[in-house]
Design brief:
GO biological process, one term: intracellular protein transport
Strand content: over 45%
Radius of gyration: 27 Å
Family: Belongs to the VPS26 family.
Number of strands: 22
Number of helices: 2
Protein name: VPS26, retromer complex component B
Distance between the termini: 58 Å
Organism: Astatotilapia calliptera (Eastern happy)
Largest sheet: 7 strands, mixed
Keywords: Protein transport, Transport
């Protein structure tokens, strides 16, 4: 009977030792749903218990060994058959034999290296999970527990401001300046735009945050651009000599840290895109890459106070009515 699958079977459950106290983080799944998962950082120990519960008490369960794995892998959506594992750790919990009753096994992966941040994108997914397996002759019994990893960075030592110019000969000359080039995920982008020459009628002006996901290598490179945020700077025509301040709060948007050449499989980069539209619907734009990084959860000053400090050198505008400001309460919703 057992040959046809009607013999003993079991349910597997993976329970973390610190499940009651460990923080959870929201993460978007491939189908777009947001769920909460246990949050880990690089170097943290992952430990817990594997509960193997027999479905039919009194019946034996023959097995080819019981193990648990900690796996970090990258999956390209266009190559789903191949999973690229960059972390693969295995602990044997029981040698081949038989279970006569339900049993619990302890496991510990000490100071596990978790070099990359969990990520679900348009064409690629980077995930970490625990997988417990009871080996069987015909069909293994296994259970996975998804985990989320965040990579933390320290404050960058070099964080120079960004200065750029947009110009059309004898028609338009604009300078714009951002207070820095590297921002943490809850930061405030503070800047100022100077109109030095305006001979075309500008109708609308905005800043977009663009996420660019790059997958593949060589001739098989795919780029996916996603506009994360649109921030209207002004609606109406500027005049020569005018300057407009910018304050863009990042906390309200779904952002990840910048990821460069992750395991030689993919990259995620962010750009500020300044867009001008004239009365004839012509578009002018200038793009600048910025670096995003994740800051540790420490007690910090309020966002509005941060913005005030960061914007001191950008204070003042010749026409404040043209500045469409955002505040922290609006953007964190």
């Amino acid at each position: 009977m057992s040959f046809f699958g009607f013999g003993q079977s079991a349910d597997i459950d993976i329970v973390l030792n610190d499940a009651e106290t460990r923080k959870k983080a929201e993460h978007r799944s491939e189908d777009g749903r947001k769920d909460k998962y246990f949050l880990f950082y690089d170097g943290e120990t992952v430990s817990g218990k594997v509960n193997v519960t027999l479905k039919y008490p009194g019946k034996r369960l023959e097995h080819n060994g019981i193990k648990i794995e900690f796996i970090g892998q990258i999956e390209m959506y266009y190559d789903r058959g191949n999973h690229h594992e960059f972390v693969s750790l295995v602990k044997d919990l029981a040698r081949p034999g038989e279970l006569t009753q339900s049993q619990t096994f302890d496991f510990e992966f000490t100071h596990v290296e978790k070099p990359y941040e969990s990520y679900t994108g348009q064409n690629v997914k980077l995930r970490y999970f625990l997988r417990a397996t009871v080996g069987r002759r015909l069909n293994d019994i296994s259970k996975e527990l998804e985990l989320v990893v965040h990579t933390l960075s320290t404050y960058p030592e070099l964080n120079s401001s960004i200065k750029m110019e947009v110009g059309i000969e004898d028609c338009l000359h604009i300078e714009f300046e951002y207070n820095k080039s590297k921002y943490h995920l809850k930061d405030v982008i503070v800047g100022k735009i100077y109109f030095l020459l305006v001979r075309i009628k500008i109708r609308h002006m905005e800043i977009d945050i663009i996420k660019r996901e790059t997958t593949g290598t060589g001739p098989n490179v795919y780029h996916e651009n996603d506009t994360i945020a649109k921030y209207e700077i002004m609606d109406g025509a500027p005049v020569r000599g005018e300057s407009i301040p910018i304050r863009l709060f990042l906390a309200g948007y779904e952002l990840t840290p910048t990821m460069r050449d992750i395991n030689k499989k993919f990259s995620v980069r962010y750009y500020l895109n300044l867009v001008l539209i004239d009365e004839e619907e012509r578009r002018y734009f200038k793009q600048q890459e910025i670096t995003l990084w994740r800051k540790g959860d420490i007690v910090r000053k309020s966002m509005s106070h941060q913005a005030a400090i960061a914007s001191q050198r950008f204070e003042g505008t010749s026409n404040p009515e043209k500045f469409l400001g955002h505040n922290a309460e609006e953007d964190t919703g």
